[in-house]
Target: AAA family ATPase
Amino acid sequence: MTSFVGRRHELARARELLTTTRLLTLTGPGGVGKSRLALQLAEQSRRAFTDGVGLVELADLQQGDLVAQSVASVFGLRDETSRPVERLADYLRDKHVLLIMDNCEHLVEACAVLISKLLAAAPQVRVLATSRHVLGTEGEQVLRVPPLSLPADEDRQLGEQQVGTDAVTLFAERATAADSTFQVTEANRDAVIALCQRLEGMPLALELAAARLRAVDIEQVLARLDDALGLLTTGQRTVPPRQQTLEATVAWSYHLCSPGEQHLWNQLSIFSGGFTLDAAEHICRVPDDEQHGVFDLLSGLVDKSIVQRSHPTNDQPMRYTLPEVLRQFGHTQLAASGDENAVRSRHRDYFAELASRGEQDYCSSRDLDWFRQVHREHANLRAALDFSLTQPEQAPTTLTIAMQLRPFWLHSGYNHEGYRWLCTALEHATAATPLRARALSTASLLAALLSETDKAKYLLAESRQLTSQIRADEAAAEATLASALLAFADGDSDEALRLARLAAQRCRAAGIQGVATESLSAATVFALGIDDPTAGELAQELLSLTTSQEAHLLKALALWLVGLAHWRENNQQAAQEHLGQALELFTQSEQPLVIAHCLDGLAWSAASSGDYYRAARLMGAARTRWKRNHLSLAHAMTARFGADRQHFVRAALGDSAFNAAFDRGANSTLEEIINYALGKRAPESQQTAPSAASALLTTRETEIAEHVAHGLSNKEIASKLVISTRTVDTHVDHILHKLGVHSRTQIAMWISDHKGLS
Model:
């Protein structure tokens, strides 16, 4: 991101308002700098909010009913409830956070309703919104963002002074970025000031003008700009003057592009959340008489600062974006050209192909790449689904895309969104086809996982009725897995196990390997839950299957279940080995829900091995991860495994030591707890000098402090060390005094911090 320039007065005023109001809305025309001001304000205010700052970027979201989900995802909450607003409000209830909602203008009603509910439920939450229009919410404080400050005409003779105004400073910085030799000098100062005044200090307009210095000098930019603005603002008397200036500057930049670049700019406006070169080359077309291809034309738009590019990370391809104001301008041109439907159809087909790879890649070594690509293109997939819904003849395509994204919905925390898309598409695609039958069974499964039991049963019944009329083997097979989940929800675990095993057989026969693997994993979970003797055998069968598939995510699931089976069999070494391998694979796949499962499993195994401090700490870490997930059915399926473990560990440690260890785990970062769970050393910057304990405590005191941290009483420590209880009492008093603490809990926390207690 480019540097932030000026705005000292606006920042001071906004900081002041944030202390007295709970909703501050920054308003102003597009391109005036609302988003940049909000981000800078958030950065300066971060320390004032103990639970942090959450940024929600709404420009690429077109669905108002997904606003709550978008906010929730910023806080790590998965989309696993049919009541996302209530879930989000409950999470934020005791949080002290600043929530930034950027670009609310096209979703004003949805944003206003959500903000009102969050502010009512969470008294320590403050909201900073940016919008071209006020939100109209009770208690809203509005701060209009003006253009950047300008030098006055009468101040030109002051020489260097006016170079310090915000508009001139911004232009100078961006001009230097375009042409490294550029400087504001005595010779060009008047032209720079005149250009900034002509553009009325609008930041985006200044940046577009500065980009032209790659081709011409400042005097030529000013001359051409004067001609263009005089022509383009004629007849726009109903538009506010500053908005006329920005729109005219964008139009001027557009007309300075070659016809091929203009044509590409128009087409790029259909992307949401950015795009790759591959997507642009597959979707965009160049005119027949254009000598350059998409790559060359895109490079030209980047050089002109129309398109922005991000540097790739972690082997990801280069990604490009159009600033929102420029995207909207391009979309207007595309709609006027009559080409919009054709371009959107190619866009839909390109991303439908990405979705179609899901079922195969899910059960292969390509699974993580597919999940990551779908996550990056989530906004584009939403746009493709939305467009298909506007085309009645494309209703089956909508169903297909929504259904093929099933692994993404399930594993990436978007169950409710997937369920929503499927239900909406089913309303449009009403023909009695195998596709509709399969979509009904998939929707039923998602509804069951969302604990929408009645709706799940209704959808399942409709799917079964349809499969009784037409042949739809895939639908019938998946419906069996949905039936298993519903049987469990109704409290019949034996029937759930029988149906899950049957579903695995039917899905294999129908050729849907992903659902077959899920069915086998569900059967293993149900078997473990009722201590069925086949649980270990089922887990090993699942591990063999996923190993042969070379899938990362599904193999991690299998390793987790094998680990739990070993734990149940009291083979703790094997349990911890398999659970550790599962945790490493789940970490690669960035799956917080199943990471919580692994932490729970490692905690139960530690408890069975007598390492109660480790167990309590891992339990605390797991609880924190569970708070961000709300798949009540999935949690119910596994929670019974270790239902009594926490009480057991608490009794073994005592309340004080248990709470200390539990809280330490709960407050650990994900990286910290994974390193701890896997027995890895923390990075050197996070380690405490090994001499810290010995510098304060004697060898015997350190030994006793470690036993205290593990929850032993003074009497138990005396017995273990073969010394008198009175001697232990004296040592504990000395330890408390030397460490400057007042409780055994604080001793445990100090030892954990300074000795890497495990």
